[in-house]
Structure formats: C-alpha cells, structure tokens
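Minutes, methods subgroup
Present: GH (chair), OT, SY

1. OT presented the first of two proteins processed in the latest run. Sequence and structure tokens recorded below as shown on screen.
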Amino acid sequence: MDTRGAFAPETMAEAREQYVETGPAAKVVVRETAKAMSFDADEYADRVTGEVVETARDAIFASMLEVRVADRPTFEEWLETSETYDDSDVELLGSEHVDRIVWHAAPFAGTVIAASFHEEEEAAIGTLRRNAFGRIYHDRLRSGGDAPADVSADASTDER
C-alpha cells in the first residue's frame, strides 16, 4: 500500500484549519498565474475575483488530501481490519471488477471514497481527490457559522 498526500483530517475542525491554511497559497498561485498571462491592473481587477481564488483554494486543498493506493485485496483487508469503517461506509467510483483501488477516508464523516483503476494511477488519484472534496468537504467547509475565514474576499484588490 502506498500513501500519498498531506491532509488527512480526523475532524472537521482539522479540515477547516488545513483549508484556511491553503488560502494564502491560492492567492499567490492566482496572482502569479495572472502575471504570467500578462494581465494589466484593470484586467486583473475585472477577472481575478474572490470566486477565482476560492476555486484555486479548493483545488489546492483537494490535491493535498491523503490517499492510499493498493490492490483490491489490500483495500479489502484494510477495510476488514478497520475499527471505523465497514462496507456500507464505502462509496466506490468505478467497477468492482478492477484490480487496483485508491481511497480517501474521512473519519468525521464516517465515509470512505474509493475509485477503482487498471493502469492510470495518477488519473485515478486526481479523480478521487476531486470527488472526495466535492462529496465530503465542499459543503461542510462552506456551511455553518464556523466556516473558515474568507481569504478570497479581497482578491481583486491585491497588488500584482
């Protein structure tokens, strides 16, 4: 079994903290990308919105989620020996009949998102991370009074 990624939040509070920590990186990525695209100040102000920075933050967070990659028997053994999850907690993307699996476990949600793949491991990891973010984190990170601070609100006023 191979483990990749940096973010494996045990609680929603940890997930929010890690999400907030990606905000400054998202702002830098967007600013530097706009600079590489030769945006002038007016174009930057028009096109680089809080939503753009928020999308970059979502992508950075998702790309850093910890995933495990293994063959199906290893995944089944992991699930069988888990004290937290069982078959009913797994949402499998793809076919049951494919021999490789990538998965992300979210203890606070009681969910494991898994994707089967045959050869394209990197593509499967990317697909899984985007789906895990969308299915587990997105709404939780944006809901409630304890949602993370909005680091993107002033994105369009940043100096290039």
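2. SY then presented the second protein from the same run.
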Amino acid sequence: MMSPFTRLVAIHRALAVTPWNVGNGIRFFRWTATGKEVTDEEVVKLITSREFMGKMSRILPGSEKIRVTSAGLEADFENKYPNTMYEALKYASERNTANRNICGWVNQRTNAIEFLTYDQFFDEAKQISMALRELGIQPKDFVAVNFVNSKDYLEMMYGVTSMSMILQPIYPNLDASAIRKILKQSQSKIYVVDTEAKARVVVERAHQMPVKILVVAGYEPSKDLRNDARSVSVQLLSLSDFMKLGENKRYLFALPKSADTFSLFYTSGTTGDPKGAIVTHGRLLQMYHTVSRLLKVSPRYPGDYTFCFLPTGHIYETLFGLLCLADGGTAMFWSGSIKHLISDLRRIKPHHIPMVPRIMNRIYDEVYSELTKNFFKRIVFMYCYQRKKRLISSNKYSPICHDTIYDRLAFRRVREILGGRISTIVSASAPLNPKVLEFFKVTVGCAVIEVFGSTEAMVVTATSPYDSTGGHTGGPVPSVKIKLVDVPELDYYAKDDVGEIYVKSPFGFEGYYNDEAATKETIRNGWIATGDVGKWNAEGKLQIFDRRNDIFKLAQGEYIIPEKIESIYGRVQIFEDVFIDGRSDQNFCVAVAVPNQALFMKWAKAKNFTHEFEPVFMELCHDIQVRKACLEELRRAGMAQGLNELQQIQNIYLEAIPFSVASGILTSTYKVKRNFARKKYAQTIDELYREGSLINGKP
C-alpha cells in the first residue's frame, strides 16, 4: 500500500499545468493534477513532509546525473498572470485589502512611521512616466537609477516599467570607474540619484559618459552643482522639478510584454568587473510564481510588513520585494544606514526579512556578547537552548514555534531584536554557518529558509523551514535542473557527486548585455555555469563549497578553499572579518583579520597585554605578541572544526580599519571581493611571507 507521501508524489509527477480562469478572463498560474487543481495546502503538505526532507532531489535517467526536486512538481508558465512587473504591481494593489499601503518608512526627524498608499503611489508613478516621455526618453531606452532602497526607487521602477523603458539600477557604493562603465554600456541618457556626491560622479566626468539629464532626489541641488552641471551641458533637475514636467501630460502608456527586458542586473564583482545580466519581465515573474508557492510554508497575509534594506541593484532584493507586494503586503524601508539596522528592525516590527549571512552573524554575535556579561542569564539561556533544540530534533516541537516556556524564559529578547513579530527569514548570497542557522531556528522560532542562487540563474535550491539539519542549501526548486561538472584540476568528479554546479532553469538570464564572450563562457549548451563548487549529500541536498575561481593551491600541491576557513575563523568573537589567502610558491596560508574593537580590547586586557598602561587599539594590532595570541585563537577554532594543518594559517595581519562596502572591499551584500582584497593587501601578504610562520617558536 502506498504511503500518503508516495501517493502525492505519484500525483504530482503526472502534473499538467492549466490556467485558473476567473470571471474577468484573467488566468492565474496553478499546478493541477489530472485536471484537478492542486491546492496550496497539498503542496505545503508535500514539501514539509519528513519523507521529502529525507530525500529532496532525485536523479534523472542518463549519464550526466541531472537532478530535479523529488517532489515531482513541474510547471508550464504559459498564460500566467501577472507576467510583467507592471501587471505585478497592479495585481499587488488588488491583493492588499488590509491597509492599502504599498510602503512605509521611519521619518528620521520625528521617528514616526509614514506610509504611501497605493492611490498616492500610482499618481506619483504616473507623473514619473509622463516626465520621462516629456524629456524625450523612449520605450526601450535605459533609465539609470542610483538610490538606496526607498519609496522613491519603487515609484521610479513603476514609472519606467509602464513605458516599456529598461530599469538600470546601480549599486549605491560602486566606485566612479564602475559607474562610468555601466552608464557607457547601457548608453543611459538619464541618471537619477539621491545624493550630491553621486551626482558629482557624472558632472565631473561628463565627457566620459552619455548622461545628458541628471535628476537629484531627496534635497535641493546646490548652486555650485547646478553651475557645474550647466558648464558641461548636463540638464540638472531636482526631483520636484522633474515631477512637475509630468503634470497634466497625456502620453499613452507603452506597456511591456513578457519577453521585454525589465532590467540589467550587474553581478556583484566578487571575481572581476561587474557584468550586466539581462533579465526579462517574464523570467522574473516565472521565478515569482514558483517561489511564492514554496513560501506558503510560512503564512503570509495582506498587510504584512517586509523589511527592505538590501541594495536595489541586487536581484534577490527585487524578487523579495515583488513577493511582498504581490502577496498584498507592505514594503517597509530602512533608514539607509547599517549602523541603525537593529533600531530600524525594532521600530518597524516586520513580519518577513530577506537576510544575508553577514547580518545574521552580527545578530548572533551581539546576543552571545550580551550573555557573557551575566553568568545567571547565560546559564538559563544555554539550558533553554539545549532543551528546545532537543525537542525540535525529536519532532516534539515544530521548528516554527515561539510560544514555549523556553521562549518566555530566554528567547524573547532575540525576537525583539528583529521587531517581535517575525514570521519568515530568507537567507541568500552566501552559505550560512550551520550554528547560526540553528541559533535562529531555536531562538526566533520562525520559518528560516536558506536559498542558493545567482544573478544569472536566480533561485536554484531552497531548504525547508521544517528541516532541522544545516550545512546545505536544500534541493532544487520546481522546474530547475542541476548537474555537477568535473573540475579535474581540483580532483573533483561528478561521478562522486561533487563538482562545479551547472543549472538549467526557466528563470535563467538571457545573457550579458553587449558581452558575447562572457555569455558564451557562462551559458554552455543551455546550462548556466555558476562557478560555484558543490556536492550532493545522502539526502539529495546541495552543499556549497566555494567559488571555483577563489580556490588556490599551495606549494605542496594542496588546494585550499578559503571561504570554508573564513567561515570557521569568522565565528571567533573578537574578529569582525577574516580574509584568507595563499600563494602557489608558499607552503602555508595567511590571514588579514579585522578585530571587533570593543571585544578585542576586553580580550587584550584579560590576556594582560595592556599591563599598567592603556595602549591604543592600533598599537595592539601591530604588537607581535598580540598577533601570535590572535593566531592561536583562530587556529584553536580551526582545530575544533577539523581543519588540517595546511588549512590553518601560520601568520596574521591585524587590520584596524573595518572592511566596508564604501571602501570597495565588500560587495553590496557584504561578501568579500576576493580579487580586490588580494590587490589591496598584496604588499601586506608579501611581508607576512617574508616574516615567515609565527608558530613553532618562529619570530
């Protein structure tokens, strides 16, 4: 007799998707089984079952060992609605029956939360579209926008989309050379920014760029900026002046089609110059339809708040914002400063948060730092943590619960850091440390979903929030195929279920804009080469090792995966960041580590490095005995996590200045730009190797 799981899988493998017809003729995407619609409840029951979590992917027949989801879900996206970003925002307006607010934010002057209604939004977005046409911008033209995540960006996106123009978001902290390259490549005639510094990048390099119209939002441009713009024949407008151009204009909307380009999303630049990935309306909306169905595992209601703080130029933020609005929710924007992130969360009290591991690590470290201050609180916390963790592992508690006695005794403060009513956390951008993942599942008690994807392939795999295991990114999402390809120089072979990850997906990008060579290098016979190295575990879940191009070789011939080491060393609380590197003519690894100044100074005092005087932070960073002690701390952590001697560092440089996006060493999603870091610290690394090993009694 078939189990309920086997029976459901058999039904789903016979899926034929048909549109769901509603009264006005609009047809919505739905999975059906043999002519009968499969409900959200049935899908959720399938993908949250223990049988599914025990085997999340299956191998298709053939020698390539191609894997797909074991849930048997497959989709045909024809005739779906919405299928453009314009339709998606109209659809969102219809779904939001709770408060009619499309977005909100904290007024930094009054500390009050302010909102923008859908009616106000559509009126202002229409003015934007009319103003663009009045300035001579045509359908298919690029409109470059460099904003922090805000209501102005949302309005600009809709105004651009309604005229079939192409949105060109630019990361707020890109340097001038990268901005110049992007603007030249897209031939953007108009550039919209939110600070004078961003405007000056164009004004001071006007002869190198195609920009002829510059719009400045958020403040009135200074007289000097206006004069400088005029001197280089750039038309400078404040946002209010720009909006006035659209008043009482009656240009016909030029609505986009599914196959039209929505945007160029530039890669983060971790391995070289950013490249513009072409993403169509249809591909992005196909991704929305799939992911929104998977997120039904965590309740989402009209009026729910989604915290929006990631860069507008990142496809992950665009997708999550779309999920928020199309489910009838309200996008809640942050203040724009990473320093105020925690206070923003507490003030806004969101229900759903798209996260990156670096931010989750910061919250994790803050909680444990507080616990060290009070012995009694630490004992209570650890007792409750271990008890709840054990009950979740034994299936006596659901991982999605926060009303137990242990939550009331010990975990309420952790939830309050995130606002107190968090329902869903989705982590992307980089692998999440299993201990951090476990911490959030136990203490926050919400749905924590880890996804793997890329700008080019969008979402590829996803975990189940009911899965208590970590160290993986789950199985393939429906309609996605994954195969591993040999990396012989690293001795990785697909026959052993390890290799470079290749993806075939209906959501994949169209190619890189005006870069045929890079497109051919990435799209190979219809497969997207991600550059990530991974392996399948026994439960059919994908584990990510590192970037193929990030791996380096030591003189012994041993290949080193730096991200694995950085992840382990990064959990040592006195450090904020650790960058690992090595050379093929050297026989050990070295590190550039950034101490957390407050925790580092306490540690130094406890280790008696301060003696009778109080040295400054910078002096301690250069002290050879302090460096040796830091080296021992990191190596001890590495030994506890099973690193072998070749993976352990033997020399260290303590960097007193934190890594940041502004300095160029971090991407906008807080990943280290490895090539940039290697160039920046090339001389430092040379000096570390000249100094030699600091272990075994040396120097």
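Chair's summary of item 2: The radius of gyration is 26 Å.
Next meeting: continue with the remaining queue.
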